[in-house]
């Protein structure tokens, strides 16, 4: 029955597609709603869209399995003594021709398919079930590629095992765009990689570079591969400079202003050639260039007068013991993810005026709520929202938290309070969407951003931060247990053993002044 069964199955699929297309066109045998055909068709189209996405994912899983079954069969049928590399090239060429993929695309497809069918069974099962997309599966395979078998199994178990505890209000990985899941998977990988993040960062820093790539219409791309603290601070500085240039008589968009500001910065001959810029939050330290004896701070020689008064803001959460050098667990850089503890210590020591500290709960790693009773949202509370949400909380939006606006979920005039649990921080686009359409946010908590309800009545869960408990040395475990669940003692616990000098660096935001 083999070939005949396959042809029959795909004929049935094509017949089902014809039925579904007729339903989308409103030409089905019965309307979705006899009482309101137009509203019924709109709602039914969303149902078809959701189900189609699940079917597409299942087909992607089928393609991966079929490709690897062909590859295994081709290797078995190859003549004895045939070079392995030649066999792999032949398999990739065949798959590429069947799927109309180039050599690079075919190799990438086979690489992900191999990972799914050999080391990532939960990911393949979720793909075939339609709960994640091919893009999600590819992100999982990419992040698992540098982990050993045990690490890869732990990675997918963390996100896909049914017994892994997770907040009920949190979106699953299939309910968020693949690029957002990739960020979460990368964060987990950085925290749990078998090799120290300090060692991996040292290797990565040695590969820092700038690349140029021509594009169409007289345009080109100029990109830089930099230590995360430099790249994030530079991006935030570009945003600050560009926002400062906006006004009623400025016709350029924020995106255009960023590009013009960047071009001006790298093309302007600066007058400040001293090393005083090294260590600032705008140009955190990187290893010196031993071939010339010169430092590599990005601010050297480019400190132009128009931008000298604007500072980038960088938010870093670092466990207090890591800050003191007792442990080496990663810190979290807002807008990026885990960074080496040494980089965080450098940011604290050399960028104190731009570093915002947060007291984290040693039991689960989540921040402790800051509350106020007045309408005004304080700077400390805005920083808290940045920590809680990471970016605009609208599903799939990655807009940087520095560009977002604090917004009362329940309006002040309707009895809403100015506490973290009643605040969201949507980006300007989704802030406008909330107040000019039927999209409404749901309730938030001190550690969980709001979800959203669409005009069609569908509820979309929010993406939650992946807080993890700090790593405490065994000798401090009795002190942690002594707290007995009391948050009142957490601040005292955080400062155990700190000298007055260390205290100035290690204190986190806790009951800040107005």
UniProtKB/TrEMBL annotation:
Residues 85-389 form the DUF222 domain. It comes from the Bacteria. InterPro entries: DUF222 (IPR003870), HNH_nuc (IPR003615). It comes from Pseudarthrobacter oxydans. CDD domains: HNHc. Residues 192-209, 460-469 have a biased composition (Basic and acidic residues). This is DUF222 domain-containing protein. Residues 437-446 have a biased composition (Polar residues). It holds the Pfam family DUF222. Residues 188-209, 269-306, 427-469 are annotated as: Disordered. Residues 269-280 have a biased composition (Low complexity).
